[in-house]
Structures are given as C-alpha cells and as structure tokens.
Amino acid sequence: MIQFCNVHFDISSFSEVDLFVCTVSYEKRSYFLLDQVIPIIDKEALLFFATDNYAKFDVSKEKIQALKELGYNAEFVDYQEYAAVIAQIKSAILSKQEDKQSVKIIVDYSSMPRSWYARLPNALEEILRPDDVVYFCYCEGNYKTGYSEYPTAGTDKAFEYFSGKASLLPKKRTHIFALSYDISRTQGIIEKCEPEYVIVCEAHDPTRSDIHQNIIDANQNIMAQAAMVVSLDISDFSFMVTKLRELANELIESSDVIFVPDGPKPLIFAMSQIPHLLKQPGITCIHAKRDLSKFVPVDVEASGKIVGFSMRVVV
Amino acid sequence: MTRKADDILRYDGQNPFGDSQPRNYADTKILNEFYPTSCFWSLFNDQHEVLLGTRGSGKTYLLKAMRRSMLKRIRDPKAEEIINNKSFIALYVPMHLEVISEFEKLDLRPDRLRSIFQFFFNCLLAEAIVQELEDILDEEEDELKAFQLGGKLSRQLDFVWFNGENTYGKGSNLKQLAQKVRNLYYSFDLSSGDINQIPSVFKRQICTSLIVAKALISEALDFKEEPTWIICVDEAEFLNDIQQQCINSVFRSDSNRIALKVATLPFYHRTLETLIPGIKVCAGNDFNYRFVDMKYDSDDFKNLTNQLCSHRLKTRLTAKQLDVESLEDFLGKIGNDDLIDYYRAEVGEENATREVIESQIIASFSADRREGSRNYTNTRKTIYDKFTTIFFVREMYKISRKGNSKPGWYAGAAIVRKVSQGNPRLFIQLMNALFEKAKKSKLTPKAQHEVVLKFCEDLCNATKGLDYDAYNCLDAISSYIMEKVHRKDQMVAIGSAFSLTSKNQAEFDRITYWLQEAIAHSRLIVAEDALINGLQNNTKFTLSNAYAAFYWIPMRTDSASKIPIKALHSNNWVDNCTDTQMSFLEEVT
Prior knowledge:
The complex is a heterodimer.
Chain A: E1 2-8, E2 19-23, H1 32-37, E3 46-51, H2 58-69, E4 75-77, H3 82-97, E5 104-108, H4 114-117, H5 120-125, E6 133-141, E7 159-165, E8 173-178, H6 183-193, E9 197-204, H7 209-218, H8 220-225, E10 228-233, H9 237-251, E11 256-260, H10 265-278, E12 283-288, E13 302-313
Parallel strand pairs in A: 2-3, 2-5, 3-4, 5-6, 8-9, 8-11, 9-10, 11-12
Antiparallel strand pairs in A: 1-13, 6-13, 7-12
Helix pairs in contact in A: 9-10
Chain B: H1 27-32, H2 38-42, E1 49-52, H3 59-65, H4 68-71, H5 77-85, E2 88-94, H6 97-105, H7 110-138, H8 143-162, H9 174-187, H10 200-203, H11 208-211, H12 214-220, E3 228-234, H13 241-252, E4 258-264, E5 288-291, H14 299-316, H15 327-331, H16 339-347, H17 354-364, H18 367-372, H19 379-400, H20 413-420, H21 424-440, H22 445-466, H23 468-485, E6 497-501, H24 505-509, H25 512-520, E7 524-525, H26 528-533, E8 541-543, H27 545-550, E9 561-564, H28 572-575, H29 579-582
Parallel strand pairs in B: 1-4, 1-5, 2-3, 3-4, 6-9
Antiparallel strand pairs in B: 6-8, 7-8
C-alpha cells in the first residue's frame, strides 16, 4: 500500500540523496533545482532526461550543452515513451538498492510529461522496500496574473485511458474535471467528453489569491454548470489525495467516477492516483491529450517555492 | 408584454437549467421531460439504423427512452401499443469512452482487439438483458410468480451463457446472474488473459449473448410472438475501425429479429467494412442512416423547448408557482416575435414601416444598384423580402456600436431557438445563462440580447479547445462575411452560407478534418446528404446561428459566399502570439 505525506523542501533536503531525477525542457524552472543539486550530490546520483526534440527550444538546447560540458549527460527519450523512462528510473533505483538498506530518491516533476510522472507511484510500488522513500517535488512557476491572451494547448481528438476499471453498465456517471487558465481547453475537454454529472476542482497557492480569483473568474461558466466545485491547496498533496479519495468513495455508491485531470501538475498527479489507490470497479482516470500540432511552448521561471510530498510503501 | 422571467428576480435557489446531460438523468427525469419527437416512434422498427446527430442533439435521450422500462411509464397511446403488443424490446448498450479507451491503451493485435471487444459487448449486452428482465418482472403483480419466473429465467440464462458453471459465482436469481457476468468481465485480464477460458457465448460475434437467450426469454415470458430486440448502441463515435466492423458484420448478417440502432457523430461511421475482408455493408440495403438533429424552427424543437422550459420551471421552482407553458411565456414576446417586431421596438413605429425600410435599403445600395432599383417591379419581393434581414442586422449592429447602446435585438423565444440550432443541450445551456441573468435583473430584451451575445461569444471561443484550425478558419470566414455585410453604402445579398473553393481536391481534403469537427459540434451546418456522402469541393456550408449572431451576420442561407481555401491561412495564430502571451505557461502538461 502506498502512503503519501506532505514534505517541506529546502536545499538541505537534497543532500545525501541517492538519486535525483528530473527533466530538462523548454522551461527555465525545469533546471532550477538541478542547478542547486549538482554541486552537492555525486554525478552518479543524477539521472536527468530530455525529450528528443530538445534542440528545437533554445532554453533546453543551451542547458543540455552546458551540462554536457560539465560532464553531465542527459538521457534522451521520445515524449511518448513513458515506459522507457519508467524502466530507466526503476533500474537506477534497483541499482542503488543493492548497496543500501534504504534509499532516498527525489523526483523533480516540474517539467515532466504527465504520462511519465503520474505513472511513477504505481510503477515504483513494485520495487520499493519499507525503508525506502521517494520524494516528488514541484517548483512553482512565476506566473503573471492575467490570463486572457495566453495560447491554449487545445485538445487532441483522442483521450488516453490512464487507470482504473469502468463498470460495464453504470446507472450513472460522474466526471470530475480540473480547472485551469486554459479555459478553451477545459471547454473543449468537457464538450468532447460529453460528461454526465459534473464536478470541478481547482488547486491554487493560498498565498496567491490574485491567481486564485483569476481562475474563478475565468471558469465562471463552467463552475455555474457544475454540481459541485472543490477547492484544493496545491501545496497540500496529502489533503488533495484524501479529499479526492473521499469524494470518489461517496460517489461510487451510486455512480461511476471518471477523473479527467488537468490544470497544475500537483492536481493532475493527485487525481491520477485515485483509481489505483481505491482499486474498485467504476473508478477510472482518463487524460486529455494536447493538440501537439498547435502546441506553443511557453517558458516559465521558478518562483523559488517548492512543494511536494513523500511516497512510501507500507505493508 | 408579460414576462414570467421577471418573477425570478432576487430568487436565490438553484438554477433549474443547471444540468444538460441526459446520460445522468435518472429515468424519472427523462420521463418527465420526455417529448416524443417525430423521430422517436419511427425508431421502433426492425431495421438496422445508424443515427447521426451532433453533440447534444438528443441521441442518448432517444435511445434511453426506448427501453421497455421507460416506455411503460410514458403516457402515450403509441407507448401503450408497443408495451401491450410486446412487439419491441430495447436494450441500452453504451460504448463509454473510459471503457473503449482502455482497449486502445492495451495496444493489442487486431485479432485480440476484436476478441476483447466482442467479449466486452456480449457481457454488456447480457447485463442489459438481465436489467430489462428485472424490470419486466417488476410489472408482475403476483410476487410469487415473479420470483419463480425470475429464478427460472436465471437458471436458463446461466445455462446458455455459462453452461451452469459456478466459476464466476451463482446464477440463482437475476441479481446474482448480473453479478456473475460482471465478475466474468472484471476478472479477465484484457491484455494477457486466455481468451479460450472465456465461456464461448461471450467470445463469439457481438450479440451472441442475446441470440442464444431470446427464444427462451420469449417462452418464459409467454410472448405470443417473438419481439424484435432493439439494441441501442450509444456513443459509437469512440469505436475504432475494427470495432465498427464488428457492428457492420451484424448489419450484414441475418437479422434474427435483432435490430441495431447505432448512435454516433456525423462522419464517425468511418467504415463500411465488415470482419470478412472484401465484404462491405451498403447503406439503404443492410442498414439505413437516420438524422437526429432537429431544425430550430421545427414543431419538434418548438414543442420540446416549451416542454423543457415549462417542466423545469414548474417542478423546481415550486415556491414561485410560475405559470409557464412556453418559452414565450418565460421570455416575453414583442408582437409576433418576428425580426420586424424587435426592429420596430428599437427604432420606433414611424421608422419601421415598409416604405421607410425599403427606401433605407435602396439608400444602402451601391450607386449602380440604386440606379437599377428604379426599374424593380414588385419591390416587396425584390427589395423588402430579399434584403430586410440584412438591413436589420446592419442597423442593429450600428446601434450596438454607439457608446453604451445595447439594442434589444437578439432576444425572444425565436432567437433563443435559432441560436440553440435545434440542439437541446445548447438550449438548456443558454437557458441556464438567461435564468442566471433573470435572478439579478429584469430580463428585458436588452438584457436577453446581452446574455445571448455572450453565450454566442463563449461558444465561438470554445471552438479553440475543440480544434484550433476550426477556430481560426471559422473566425476568418465569419470575419470575411461580416466585413461584406457591413460595408458602408454597399448592401449586398449575403448570409451565413458559404462554399470553399480550392485548386484541387487534395487542397480541400487537407481541411476536411476541422470541417467535420465543426459540423459534429454544431459550429457548421450542412445538408444531410453531405453527412452521408462526405464533404466535397462544392458542399454548401452554413455558419451556425451562434456564429452568425456573434459576428452580426444575417441568419439566412441563400447567396452563399465563395471563399478560397488558401485565404483561410490557418497557421497565423502563432504569428499572432505576442511576447506577453509567450511569457505565460498554461499548466496543461
């Protein structure tokens, strides 16, 4: 069984780590932690990825080159090849476990594709020992408060099944969507999904009430049509999981529950775990793919705030 | 003008139009809001049919209401006839996204994918059969008889489905039998499970679980004649080609008193192939296409909207005791709810006479046309009837641009139905917005106009999330037509219809995808034959009335504009992203 606990991160958290995993991408915040960690950990404790198309983006191209000159080499993978990424991470952890009774792993998922990070808990559960601990950390981005002119990520024509098992013939279905600034995408997801009973949730930083209010204002139409709006604290992963589990447990009495995660990564992460945690027919999670043909990468710098949680396997 | 919406002012209760998805609807709600459209009763036949309808057009509503368990509660002579004659029994079998997408994720070989789909379909159908049988037995007044019949049916079905084996549980009664079917399905590993271990009925061609059961059901329930079993396959747009071939194979085979009604989006019935290579199904022969979308000015849609409006307001606002029988009662009506009535209300009686309007229309012509109009005979037809729609839109647009002016133009029941485009879901969503407004202020024509225009704007913007090419191209097309509509001193005969001209078929084929998406989501309208035969170079398209309203384009379909495809330039959205836009990341990865 997996146990999640909130964790407070500062740079001292990253010393004595056996493995640090991250992804360097077109966002400067993707290597915010990496830059701080490199001076204090061994080279062998570092595993960082970059997608095959990294050279298309100046930010990642320059960073990968700079790291290479320092003797740090990225693992290059196709964006879609989550199985290969997970296999590499597992292999690296197993290797560390050979020499130690307990290992400390940190995964910075700030710029990882969701198909990579959301699968990690389930994948790592198989190999973690009771004294091992994996930390998942996320660097919050420095966002402007306005939202109306930002490019949308759109939606691909397909949705991707992520986890869980749907009922054969449910009497009722409840969809739980996540809100974000990308209202067009959210509306597109809802329209394509043709959801039944709608619950929406949003996760925000309580210290940024301006952003929170913007999300509320931007999504008013959607919220007005939802049966329930659930507001969550982006820095409290443990509560997010608990709350979503509780919601699913209440709803499953009378309805199938379908999670459609979106919005900030910690919320996507939390929503994606619920079917696996509850292991009950009728609870599923599907991911709405982006329209990659229209995707415009947007650089974001780290705000300096790191939120995260730990994962342990308890017997 | 009386307007019942004014009685909502300061109401702080829940919005009765807050949900619009029939799949969630408890059966009671479906029945209470049920309006038997002309399409509904004609679905009770023994033909295989593919029901084409845009999102929100009412496909699910129709299919759910066909079940015997629903029909018996509909107070209509036709429903009674079907129930009493026991001539049809319908089963609802949805192809939910979260189920079908799991099969896709497994990345199976085609033959295994087919087997898994057949297994899933037969299990789902079996559970639907049991559910319907439970409901039929609920009708039996003699509880002992119902209990005995239920036991007999369970044992018999258990035998034909599971050979009486208890691997997946017992089947002593219908509830246990349904659970046994579920246990079978949930316990099977879709990616690596041994198909040979599945009871044979469930791994054969789809519908086998019904084929082996229907005779014994007829006998047990003492049907004088075997009924036609209607299998209502909903959400078939999520099926891939192999899965659609499974359904097409049933179309092609001996019907066996089984009729499939397969609901899907336009253009999503993608293949006519069957599971036998080289053998295809033929529309008109093996199956028929049926169009579910209603026209906004049809009696069906008018009656449906009246019923929805009346029922929801009466049953959910009981304290208010609103006497609303129609949409017109709620929104109020100016005159006959015609365009001229709303125009007259804006500009005054003396400016709305036919003579004044005609002279203003002529004054808006180009110099040449103005000159030529002197020779027009029958100006009622050649000027008034032909141009007033355009004239009104031009004038109202001018008013809307003046400072804080807001005309009460997009208002009234006729406009609400037009903008809803005959789509029940869009209607409910628009009513949701109007109701919210009515809670805060009087729902005057100006207030209604504001709400309707905002609704249209949001719908147009939401296209971005569906398909960015569709969004950009529809914006380009609408802007192009809008510019032509509102040219100063040059009124032309133009409306919301257009065709796309291309150098060759290949150029046209490259844009087919977004056109189809726009049609499936009611952004564009085409004639029914285009939905079957596909989109061609010469297909006439019409912008949805929501687009027409937002871009101030007359809602008329003659005089189609010819727009070259190359002018659409769908990739300019990247160029339009400013540095400001580029500095913000939307958290969608």
